Amino acid sequence: MDHLWFAYPLISASVLLIIDLVLWQWLHPRFLRRKLACRLALFVLFSMALLDGGLSPLYPVPADWPVSRHVLGTILTIAWWLFGARTLTVLAVVVMEPRIGGKGHLLQDVMGAIIFLVAVVAAAAYVLDLPVKGLLATSGAVAIILGLAVQSTLGDVFSGIVLNATKPYRVDDWIRVDDIEGKVIEIDWRSTHLLTSEGSMAVIPNSMAAKTRIVNFSRPDHFHSVTLSIELPTRLRPSLVLDSLDKAILGCRELLVTPKSSAVVVKTGLRSVEYEVTGYVKSRDRRSAVRNQLYDLIHRQLAATETRLDQSRPATRPSAVLNTVGALRMLSDEDRAQLELHMHLGAYGAKDVVLAEGIVPDALYIIESGVMSVSIQRPDGWLEIGRMGPGELFGETGFVDGTPTAGRFCAYTDCMIYRIDKADLEPWLQEHSELIGALAGLAKFRTKARASMLDVKPVITDPSGFMGWLRKNVTRFQVGRGPGVGPGPTDKMS
User: Fold this and answer.
1) Structural domain of residue 441, as residue ranges?
2) Total structural domains in the chain?
């Protein structure tokens, strides 16, 4: 009994309240579990101090106490109820956060308000010995009057509670409510805030969102569709067009494997046939870039198909391929006509290796049709770094600096590829210095792109919940912590 704790329990309880307030402000919000542990410990000590001082939260303060001590005891007993309500609210936040996310505060706020309301009523009944029944009856009448006055607002609030409980969308999801489309920025008591594609903010009342149709573009698995409509003349056979569209789809590496992309005939007429291409990307922000890339790939595949089928002027077929290669466009018509004599066409089936890794190329290869896959050898297997389509060339390292290829060039689909032997092309390189410069620039660009891809570190998903918290703290305790291959639309990997 000689200790300060037992001699001055009410003063000790007051000090514990001050310590709790200081620690709550001092600890960083990311240490929520540590703050909760400290608050629980201080709440237990605070309760022990009140009991040692002869106080109980379930009974009023003794009437025979001096005025100053009576006032302090009343304040501390009421503070016990509020302290417990705040502790219980924080505990509910910690338990609910893994399920509803750190940005969905509406349900947490409602639960906190209910807990504090119960604590206030209990403090009035037990500590202040007020007539709670009359108070509740009066409060009920006032609540009815206020409810009628703010009926629309209450509708938004309760609709917000329903939306938080059912979770048809979350923060950062792309949704469409009625005819308004945007990214969910915030969900508060009354409304949902959307950031539209025009950069403006749309505020939708929760009651409206709960009653109307909601389309969530971020579910399931956060993939988004990319749809193209293409109208072509009827002279092109649909089976050949669909084959070209399928190759264009395979040539775009950003399209997801699952769900599978498709190309179908939508409508046919006397003069034209309408086709629809549908694919899926991981990020909604990449839809425009992938759509543009698909249009370019489709154009090149269709151009290659038309060139291959044009038998009226067979001599123009190699010339049409040369016209699609950016590095060879500086050649004159006479030089291009002589170069066509050295172009040898070869057919490769899917998965055939056209140019192996570590081989010094002895020829320059130009893709007429199909899709090529470029991969490099890694300890865990082959890693695809790019895909190539019609009009692109490879094998330039054998002409620039005589270095072996750093990757393996394999046919991803059936391919038609022209080959120009080094012995036939070397005279052209001596006469056209700008051609060797273009090949050197292409080789440099591809080397830089390959190096940047190898420097990308894998993203490790940070687990949530107790195991994630445990891993973070153990680590803190121990420590104390597809690019392209070419510079242009015709000379790069798709």
Assistant:
1) 325-454
2) 4
